[in-house]
User: What shape does this take?
Amino acid sequence: MKEIEFIQTLQNIFFTGEHAALATIVRTRGSTPRKAGSKMIIYPSGRIIGTVGGGCGEGEVIEKALKVINTGQPVTHEVDLTTGLLYEDGGICGGIMDVFIEPLL
Amino acid sequence: MNKQELYQELSAAITKRKHVSLVTITRAARKEMIGKRMLLFSQEEIYPETGIDRTLVLKLAELCFPFFREQITRSAVLYGKDDPITVFHEVFAPPPHLIIAGAGHVAEPVAHMAKMLRFYTTVVDDRPEFARQGRFPSSDDVRCQSFHSYFQSVPLNEFTYVLLVTRGHQFDVLSLQQLLSRNEKPAYIGMIGSRRRIAGVFEQLRTDFPDESFSHLYTPVGLDIGAETPEEIAVSIFAEILAVKNRKSGAPLSSTIRELAKTGFHERRKRKR
Assistant: This one.
């Protein structure tokens, strides 16, 4: 999705007052599937828009984001992709990324 | 300004193709500061969200401004007498601007590709039957205007790519002279033409612009892939534009590994493309 469309989606969430969370990769070390600035919106139902790289790492972010929606407190979550190289799903990345997760209220 | 207004400003800036970056506090001792944002348009033009005090705004702007200037998206830490604050500086660079001068056969596939590759595209031609939005449905801006007047005033910067493919070589050359006489420089000027014709053009240009290095002039245009049809020529041209934009040579990725394959892989190369 183009940047502008993503931001319009955010604006729409603010406008309608929906609850959701925004996850942004803010720092990467080593080889990661996506670079800093990649974003994903997470809805309480678990529905997502965008991606922070897919796979197990993304699963972790979704789980954290659901907590953030409940608590309302933004967090920086470290996703470590160095352990379990060659996941069963064929993940080939071996880096670490910091993901900033914030509530959209 | 609240968060909603900040996003409004941000999307307006992106639509207007302005340089803007978004700064977000991601770590801070004071929890209420986490998630606060500001927009950076220049070192002086800063739009913070309510809740960040003026001193902190200025300190963060000072920290982030070098990244803004270099167009780098990254995290940074502000150290000082208070607890450190981590921010994420995110660049929203405007899409590169491709100007296609000449709305003929080559322009059409180039304009199509430009859309796919997310360039903001202008097609300019002085013939109303060619410079029609209907012929270039995917282009952002189709202008029926003389090349001379268009190139006199169009903004040029490091995100501008100009392709000269007009119906007659003399129009290409006139446009080129106009572009070279401007103070601002585009990233790329590509001009179509045969080797022989271009040799003559260069003779003339060297006399007219003795101080010019012509380092951003690419003529004949495109990479050497034996392109003949307009579509093939468009691929050749766009491959070159992307190589310039991404600062790469345009050589096949296999070329280095092929050498190694002959001589043997003495050391394990890092897994990098």
Remarks:
- Chain B touches chain A through 24 residues (CB under 8 Å).
- Residues 254 and 273 of chain B are 10 Å apart (CA to CA).
- Chain B has two domains: 3-92, 97-245.
